[in-house]
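Hello Y.,

Per our agreement to keep a running log of every chain we model this quarter, I'm adding this entry. I've kept the format consistent with earlier entries: sequence first, then predicted structure.
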Amino acid sequence: MGQSTREIERKYAAPAADDMSWLSDLAGVETVASLVDRGVQDLDAVYYDTADLRLARSSATLRLRTGGTDAGWHLKLPLAGDSREEIHSPPADEVPEELRELVLARTRGAPLRPVVRIRTTRSVRELAGTGGGVLAELCLDTVRADSLLDEDGHAVWTEMEVELAEGGDPALLDDVEKVLHENGVDRAPSPSKLARALAETTPAKEAAPEPHTEVVPGSAGEQVYTYLRTQARTLVDLDPAVRRGAPDSVHRMRVACRRLRGALRSHRPVLDREVVDPLRGELKWLAGEMGAERDHEVLADRLSTGVRELPDELVLGPVAARLRAWDVAQRDATRRRTLAALDSPRYLALLDRLSELTTRPPLRAKATRMPKKVMAKALTKEFERLRRRMDRALETPPGPERDTAVHEARKAAKRLRYAAETARPALGKPARRLGKRVKAVQKVCGDHHDGVVARDMLRRLAVAANAAGETGFTWGLLHGQERAAGRAREQQLPVVWQRASAPRLRKALR
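Predicted structure for the entry above:
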C-alpha cells in the first residue's frame, strides 16, 4: 500500500525577480531562526486524468514525477482548508492498481491517460527553527506546462509555494503569509500547477460543465440543488478513505447517502420523481451494503466497553477471548462486503447517476418558487410523519413491537433533521433549533435500538458459551444492564419529544 502523508501548503504569485530582500524578513518570524538554501532541483511530472478531466474537476491530481527526492506516483486528494492527502507509490510504467481504485469514484471507470506535462526548476529554502529542525519549505518555481490532450498548447510562469513540515503548526503559514503580503506577494490565482496548466493550455476543456436545467438564483430549486451537490461531492470524496479503512469513514459515507436520500424524498415537489425515486433506491442499497461494517463497529465497541467496565470478579470465563474471536470474524466479513460494493458495476452506475443529478438537476416548475414556503411545507410533512411514528412508539406496550416502533421513529427523525439542514438557509434559526432538538430524539431512539441489537447478540454469545461448557454469567449480566438502559431510554423519549414538538417551535417554521 502506498505511503500516505498530509500536505499543508499555500501557493503564491511570483515575487519580483530583482528584489528578494524580503527573504531576510522571514527569519524574523517567531519560531523561525534561519533560512537554509537547499539548492535547485529539476522536476518533471506527467499528470494523468480522464479525457474529460474528471479528476481535475473534483480537485484531485495524479502524476508520475521524475527528479527530486520523491520520484514516483503521487495522488493528491482534497482535505479541508489548505490541506491535502498525498499518497505516494514507487515509480512504475503504469498507474498502480491501488491508485486506480482510489480514484474510481471520480473516474467512474473512464480510462486514465496523460493530459499535461509540467517541468519545474525549483529553488528550495528551508525555514529552520532554533533547534535546527525544519519548520517549512519555501520553493520558488519556474514552470513550463505542455498539453498532452491532442493539443500543442504550452504555458510558462513562475510561482512560489510554502509547505508546512510534517507535524508543523499551521499558524506558521499565517505568519509567513503576513510577511509576504507586506512585501507585495499575494496568493496565486490558481489552486495548483495543474489547474493553471489546464486553464492556459486547454482552456475550453478546463471549465466544469454547467447545469443543463436552469437553476433560478435564490429559488427553492437552487437551495435543494446546492445541498444535493454538496452531499454528492462528500460521498465521492469519502470513497478513498473508505477503501483504505480510515476511522469513521464508513459512517460518514453512509450519512452522505442518507442525506441524499432524505433530500430526494423530502423535496419531491421540486424534483422529477421518475428520475429521483430510482436513485433513492440505489442509495439505500449502498448504505445497506456499508451498513454491515458500520453496525458491527458500533456493536463491537459497545460490547467491548461493557466488558471492560465490569469489575474483574464479574468477568467469568474466557469472555474477552470469545468476544475477540467473534469481532475478528465479523469485521473481516463485513469489510469484504463494503469493498465488494465499491468495486461493483452497480456502484459505478450510481455514481454516474449522481453526476447526472448534479449537472442536469431534474427540477420541476415548483423549483422556481421562493424557498421559504417550499421548505416550510417540506418540514411540516416530515414533522407529521415523525409525529405519527412517535405516537405509535409511545403508545405501544414494552416489547418487540415497541422496539420496532422506536426504530421507525428514529428513521423519521433522521429525515426531518436532514430536511431541516436543507431548509436552514431559508428558515434560519427555527430550522436550526428544530434540527438540534430532533437530533436529541434521534439519539435517544438510536441508543435504544443499539441496545436492542446488543441484547440479541449477547444472548447468542451466551448460547455459544454454554454450548462450549463455559459459564454464561457475564453475558447474562451484560444483557441485564442493556435491558435496564433500554427502559431508561424509553422513559427519556417522551421528554425529548416534547421539546422537539413544542407548538412555538413549529409555528416559527411557518
